[in-house]
Amino acid sequence: MTGSARRIGTVSGTGLSTLVLDRTGDRRLAEDVRVVAQVLPFKVNSYVTEELIDWSRGSDDPIFRLVFPHRDMLPRDDFESIRQALENGSRDEVAGIVGTIRERLNPHPSDQLTRNIPQTTDFDPWGLQHKYRETLLIFPRHGQTCHSYCGYCFRWAQFVQQPELRQETSGAAAMTRYLQDHPEITDVLLTGGDPLVMRTALLERYLRPFLDGVLPHVTTIRLGTKALSFWPYRFLDGPEADTLLELLARLVRDGRHVALMLHVSHPRELETDAARQAIRRLYDTGAVLRSQAPLVRHVNDDASTWSRMWSAQVRLGIVPYYLFVERDTGASRYFGVPLVRGWQIYRDAIAGLSGLGRTARGPVMSAAPGKVVVDGPVELDRRPAFALRFLQARRPELVGRPFFAAFDPHVQWWDELKPYGPSDRPFFAE
User: Fold this and answer.
1) Distance of alpha carbon 200 from its chain centroid, rounded?
2) Burial level of 40, CB count in 10 A (0-12/13-18/19+)?
3) Residues whose CB falls within 8 Å of the CB of residue 127, separated by 6 or more in sequence, listed in order
């Protein structure tokens, strides 16, 4: 498909409140948006507002909740402090309050900056993360934004104007050097933000080393993206789309396993004509399409939504991969659900699917020690417990071994869990 690329229009920051007022006529909702957008980053584009949001439902629409601020994302006292500072008209006062609130929102969860950054003195490793032995994460500098922002995003700190919080590489040289020094790495993940906001020529700088035979031990290349949901024209319009798809196909022909990790939060994201066309074009490259998203309140916190979404993905050639637990950062208390409810939703969602629809692992916490799957509540010694296991871990010897945590119907995250008994304590020891 060729032709001129379709233009994308975006709205961010407090401009969102004007958009909400124009579309809904709800002045209080617009004011709420203006206040919360001082703290957490929000951006929405024309495709999302025109093709995905059902404005007749207003703030009850799940895609609206996915991308627009809501007053309950902040504690009441914080919300009122910012609202009053805005009324006072003092930028310095607003900035001071916002900075204090952001510090409390755990901007980099799961020890990302303290334990995942490679330790080397030969070059600057900033923008690389090496948490698991086989996998390296790369944060390309030009890919640290998105076509639209999800309100639940655990990497919200990438998008605020605080450079010390932003992870990004200056280029592909550090990635290539680190991979040359670490032959145990077989899997790389370009992430962000979204690497597919980058022009294809910039993206190719990071992918070219895997085409010239320099890094033969890297067999799997993953691209984390929500472009299919938020801007499918990235794969449809003009030379930029065509060269991107040819680049993916070249990697596949070169013998690499290429996987697009599609962030799909709601079945509506797969229902537009543009999304369906983009899926067909991506499928023809030979790349594997996998889907993942967290379970988030107000957006997809019911079994029927996940069941419909996974069924549609299988029909379209997408492999359901992960149902994540919302991480303990940002507006997690607004979006998060208790672990036991997350497990019930996951269980009910897969119950009505065929085996091909049951490939998604979940609910999974991507926590500091590793990826922990909640297999559900069980009775042990007449006391309830959570059955858990590591799908991936900093300590590989823990992977796949069942262990238990004391049952609590209210906990939402790993750090709130406690070992069930003495034999479970080593799994919690870091």
Assistant:
1) 22
2) buried
3) 138, 139, 140, 141, 167, 168, 169, 170, 174
> 3-class SS at 195?
helix
Residue 64 gets the label, from left (phi > 0), alpha (psi -120 to 50) or beta, of: alpha
The pair of structure tokens assigned to 29 is: 């909702």
> What is the helix (H) or strand (E) element at residue 415, kind and residue range?
none
If one counts every other C-beta atom within 10 angstroms of the C-beta of residue 354, the result is 9
CB neighbours of 53 closer than 8 A, spacing ≥ 6?
Answer: 61, 63, 64, 67
Summarised one tens digit per residue, pLDDT across range 5-51 is 578 899 998 799 999 999 999 999 999 999 999 999 999 999 999 99
pLDDT band at residue 148 under the 50/70/90 scheme? very high
Beginning with the edge strand found earlier in the chain, give each strand of the sheet holding 187-190 in spatial order.
128-129, 135-138, 187-190, 220-225, 257-263, 288-295, 319-325, 361-367, 370-380, 383-393, 403-406
- Residue 280, both tokens: 């067909």
Q: Residue 162 has what pLDDT? A: 83
Residues in the chain: 430
Please give the span between the terminal C-alpha atoms of the chain, in angstroms, as a whole number. 52
Angle between helices 91-104 and 76-88 (to 10 degrees): 160
Taking the C-alpha atoms of residue 421 and residue 419, their distance in angstroms, rounded to an integer, is 6
By CB atoms closer than 10 A (0-12, 13-18, 19+), residue 140 is buried
